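Hypothesis: this fold can be encoded by more than one sequence.
Test: take the structure tokens below, design a sequence, compare later.
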């Protein structure tokens, strides 16, 4: 629940004093993506227009009819669904351009050129999913994965790792570290899109189940 609200939790153990849990949540809703916000109005919250007192009617005054204007409709909290955001973390510009060309018709795409920039953008835009190369300067994909899983604010975001290697040990290591998929180059657009659709569908199902329990 804390992850869904882009909050953080810190746990401190104090000897002979117990454990302290510190939870931080941002105020308002500006930090949410449109796809993370839903609007629901219960029947007992609807404006009771029909129950408003009617004006006094006599022979000299015609009966006034209640009217409904656009301002009476609850529009501020209604947010339309928007495309999921995919963050590409890749230092090869040719591959970045190829991925953007393949994905931009379906998703909102942002780019970071290495793991350091990738972590900064993740905390800034909170993408729905991350595609990262394994081998990069400054910080490679594996090291970035470690830091993602240690950060409560972004640890819930699924990560797909791209690699030119086909070593089973590297694949096993990446999956154990929390990668949701490990794709060897070259790969087809259809395979990558299928992985994205599956992971995003699983994440949406998790959200719906979580909200239904609150």
């Amino acid at each position: 629940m804390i992850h869904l609200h882009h909050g953080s939790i810190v746990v401190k153990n104090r000897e002979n004093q117990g454990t302290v849990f510190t939870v931080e949540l941002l105020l308002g809703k500006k930090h949410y993506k449109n796809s993370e916000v839903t609007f629901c109005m219960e029947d007992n919250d609807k404006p009771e227009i029909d129950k408003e007192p009617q004006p006094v009617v006599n022979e000299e005054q015609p009966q006034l009819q209640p009217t409904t204007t656009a301002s009476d409709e609850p529009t501020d909290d209604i947010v339309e669904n928007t495309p999921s955001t995919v963050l590409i973390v890749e230092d090869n510009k040719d591959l970045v351009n190829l991925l953007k060309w393949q994905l931009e018709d379906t998703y909102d795409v942002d780019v970071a050129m290495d793991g350091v920039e990738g972590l900064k953008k993740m905390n800034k835009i909170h993408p729905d999913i991350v595609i990262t190369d394994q081998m990069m300067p400054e910080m490679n994909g594996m090291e970035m994965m470690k830091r993602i899983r240690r950060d409560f604010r972004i640890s819930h975001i699924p990560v797909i790792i791209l690699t030119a290697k086909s070593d089973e040990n590297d694949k096993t290591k990446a999956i154990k570290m929390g990668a949701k998929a490990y794709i060897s180059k070259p790969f087809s657009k259809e395979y990558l899109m299928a992985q994205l659709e599956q992971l995003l569908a699983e994440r949406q199902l998790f959200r719906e189940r979580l909200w239904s329990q609150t």
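Confidence is low (pLDDT under 50) at residues 39-51, 67-80. Helices lie at 93-103, 115-125, 141-150, 168-177, 189-212.
Hypothesis status: open.
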